[in-house]
């Protein structure tokens, strides 16, 4: 398996523009997570899907952020409009098995580095 | 709610020296604990995990960690550091309750000098 695939790897955009980040989880994994990493706040969970259904979106910063998972093999994280404070590395991760199982291991993608000017 | 505290944002060691990265957790129920490593410009990779079996857990690349309930700790160690160990290390906690997710610590950057 190619692992969790994220695109784009790097994105530079101007404030106010729409940004769409994409993720393809590992085939067969039924849980998908979006994390944001910044120097100040570390790794923050933004949203968690299980079987394509959003389970916990309490980490989504505000209404400018939205995430979808239309099928088991694809998810998007959208920021509209983007702001300089959204600059961060956004990671997608997937895991196998139901939630609450501590033995589940998250496999991370390489991340999408977003810079908003 | 669970949380993780990693003591020290940066740890410096010489090549061949002992590596000790500290992690303390807070959880109202028995936790599952993980260490992940992040190399520059890469995603996180699992080093090892504790899931209530043996308290001493061995991981990849010679790392190991010991779960100590009395100290609420899960420190990561390696007897002899290699230059290739230079990376950022994250401790994470998950509880086996409902729709539980991983909560990460702030990370510790390990610097290895020749």
Structure description:
The complex is a heterodimer of chains A (117) and B (114). Chain A is mainly beta. Chain A has no helices and eleven strands. Chain A has strands at residues 5-7, 10-13, 19-24, 31-38, 42-50, 53-56, 65-71, 74-79, 88-95, 107-108, 112-116. In chain A, the strands form two sheets. In chain A, strands 2, 4, 5, 6, 9, 10 and 11 form a seven-stranded mixed beta sheet that branches. In chain A, strands 1-3-8-7 form a four-stranded antiparallel beta sheet, with no helix packed on it. The mean pLDDT of chain A is 91. Chain B is an all-beta fold. Helix content of chain B is 0%, strand content 56%. Chain B is built from no helices and eleven strands. In chain B, the strands form two sheets. In chain B, strands 2, 4, 5, 9, 10 and 11 form a six-stranded mixed beta sheet that branches. In chain B, strands 1-3-8-7-6 form a five-stranded antiparallel beta sheet, with no helix packed on it. The model of chain B has no long low-confidence stretch (mean pLDDT 91). Chains A and B meet through strand 5 and strand 10 of A and strand 4, strand 5, strand 9 and strand 10 of B.
Brief write-up:
The complex is a heterodimer of chains A (117) and B (114). By secondary structure, chain A is mainly β.
Find the structural class of chain A using helix and strand composition: mainly beta
Low-confidence stretches of chain A: none
Low-confidence stretches of chain B: none
| Helix and strand element order of chain A | EEEEEEEEEEE
Question: Number of helical runs of chain A?
Answer: 0
Which chain pair has the greatest contact? A-B, 23 and 28 residues
Oligomer: heterodimer
N- and C-termini, Cα separation of chain B? 41 Å
Q: How many strands in all of chain B?
A: 11
Distance between the termini of chain A: 36 Å
Would you tell me the overall average pLDDT of chain A?
91
The number of helical runs of chain B is 0
């Amino acid at each position: 398996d190619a692992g969790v695939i994220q695109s784009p790897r790097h994105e530079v955009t101007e404030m106010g523009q729409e940004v769409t980040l994409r993720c393809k989880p590992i085939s067969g994994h039924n849980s998908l997570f979006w994390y944001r990493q910044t120097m100040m706040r570390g790794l923050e969970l933004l949203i968690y899907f299980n079987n394509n259904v959003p389970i916990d979106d309490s980490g989504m910063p505000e209404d400018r952020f939205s995430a979808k998972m239309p099928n088991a093999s694809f998810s998007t994280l959208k920021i509209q409009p983007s702001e300089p404070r959204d600059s961060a590395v956004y990671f997608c991760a997937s895991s196998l098995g139901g939630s609450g199982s501590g033995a589940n291991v998250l496999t991370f993608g390489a991340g999408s580095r977003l810079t908003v000017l | 709610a669970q949380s993780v505290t990693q003591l020290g944002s940066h740890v410096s060691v010489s090549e061949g020296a002992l590596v000790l990265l500290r992690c303390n957790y807070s959880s109202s129920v028995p936790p599952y604990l993980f260490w992940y490593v992040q190399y520059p410009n890469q995603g996180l990779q699992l080093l090892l995990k504790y899931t209530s079996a043996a308290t001493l857990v061995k991981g990849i690349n010679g790392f190991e960690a010991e779960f100590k309930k009395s100290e609420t700790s899960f420190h990561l160690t390696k007897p002899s550091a290699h230059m290739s160990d230079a990376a950022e290390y994250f401790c994470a906690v998950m509880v086996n309750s409902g729709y539980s997710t991983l909560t990460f610590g702030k990370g510790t950057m390990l610097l290895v000098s020749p």
